[in-house]
Design goal:
Layout (H helix, E strand, L loop, with lengths): L2 H21 L2 H4 L5 E8 L8 H14 L5 E7 L3 E8 L3 H12 L11 H17 L6 E7 L12 H4 L5 E6 L6 H9 L6 E5 L4 H16 L4 H31 L2 E6 L6 E5 L5 E5 L14 E7 L2 E6 L4 E4 L5 E2 L4 E3 L4 E4 L2 E7 L1
Parallel strand pairs: 1-2, 1-4, 4-5, 5-6
Antiparallel strand pairs: 2-3, 7-8, 7-16, 9-10, 10-11, 11-14, 12-13, 12-15, 15-16
């Protein structure tokens, strides 16, 4: 196989790989159904300044979820609204949810029912566990200052977040720190809790998203190998098909030589692979008035035409001044050459 055909096959295969990566559903390329994610977004009046950070972060988390994962999002303020809870059905459903989150506005007055929010978080994780068996990863993200006067130690046992959960809290400044931390750590204190101020939200979220990507949505290696193999085979087949189409187009190619000095004077010659057409020398194109001492030829190799000098002065006319031809040079249809003063144009027959 020629180098040009191999290069074309490589380019086509690369194009198919890129197209497959962007066009195939993410869950086809990556594992899904492992993630149990719950998000609490505080829209209470006291969290007014930091709501944009929470909205932006929640939207990033939604974009990271794949169909098959389980997701719950609660908007917590003077009342707690459940935006979604259950297995993610499709990317379209996530798109609708994203627009709903983007439209969330802070409360004008009223605090945050953080205790009720944690009760819903616990219920969501319990529901995910009952409806799922196998490997899964629990993650909780709370965008809230967690300021509440309604949460005390007596509530902790009923609100505790399920064990073995990765917890990220952004903006925590609750005075009921002990009670809130007991809820977040879980009844057996097995949860991994990270608390950061709003200014460090971007970095903390990046780490969370990377964990989701690497531990919950790892690449499906067999399918990636299948995509690579399919792309390589398809690229090779396409390049061979294009080569055959080109070869057929050139199989019976003929050239027309026209004497520009004598209007209407032309001759057509069939030019097979490896063949050539002699011009001048008193043998062909006698009606071109080419002196006997002048001769040249046009040869074909695959899809390349070459002008070969013979006897006499030979010039190739392209942009600018004519070029003296002293050794074989490539030509194409539309080129004009001058042999001993006679102007000849090369055209497709």
């Amino acid at each position: 196989m020629k180098i040009t055909q191999l290069f074309l096959a490589f380019v086509l295969a690369l194009a198919l790989i890129v197209a497959g990566y962007f066009l195939l559903p993410s869950q086809w390329l990556r594992n899904s159904g492992v993630l149990d994610l719950v998000v609490v977004l505080d829209w209470g009046a006291g969290n007014h300044d930091h709501l944009p950070t929470g909205v932006d972060g929640t939207r990033k988390l939604v974009k990271a979820v794949l169909p098959g994962d389980r997701l719950a999002i609660y908007a917590a303020g003077p009342q707690v609204s459940e935006l979604v809870r259950g297995p993610v059905s499709s990317a379209a459903a996530l798109s609708i949810l994203d627009r709903q989150i983007a439209g969330l506005r802070p409360a004008i007055h009223g605090g945050t029912l953080i205790g009720e929010s944690f009760a819903k978080v616990s219920a969501a994780f319990d529901g995910f566990l009952r409806n799922y068996s196998g490997k899964h990863r629990r993650m909780l993200v709370v965008f809230s200052d967690c300021v509440t006067g309604s949460l005390d130690a007596s509530d902790v046992s009923n609100l505790s977040v399920a064990g073995q959960t990765s917890v990220l809290v952004i903006g925590f400044r609750s005075q009921n720190k002990d009670a809130v931390m007991q809820v977040l750590l879980g009844s057996d204190a097995s949860n991994d809790v990270l608390i950061v101020p709003p200014g460090e939200a971007a970095e903390a979220l990046s780490g969370f998203l990377e964990t989701i990507r690497s531990q919950c949505h790892s690449l499906r290696v067999p399918r990636i190998v299948l995509l690579l193999a399919f792309s390589a085979a398809a690229g090779l087949m396409l390049s061979m098909g294009l080569s055959q189409i080109t070869a057929r187009r050139w199989a019976d190619v003929s050239i027309r030589l026209t004497n520009d000095d004598d209007e209407g004077t032309s001759q057509v010659f069939a030019l097979a692979e490896g063949g050539s057409v002699s011009i001048g020398g008193g043998e062909q194109l006698h009606d071109f008035a080419i002196p006997v001492e002048g001769s040249c030829s046009v040869a074909r190799s695959a899809q390349v035409l070459s002008l070969l000098p013979g006897n006499g002065r030979l010039l190739l006319q392209r942009a600018g001044e004519p070029m003296v031809v002293t050794e074989p040079c490539p030509v194409t249809f539309g080129d004009t050459f001058h042999l001993e003063g006679t102007s000849v144009t090369l055209q497709k027959g």
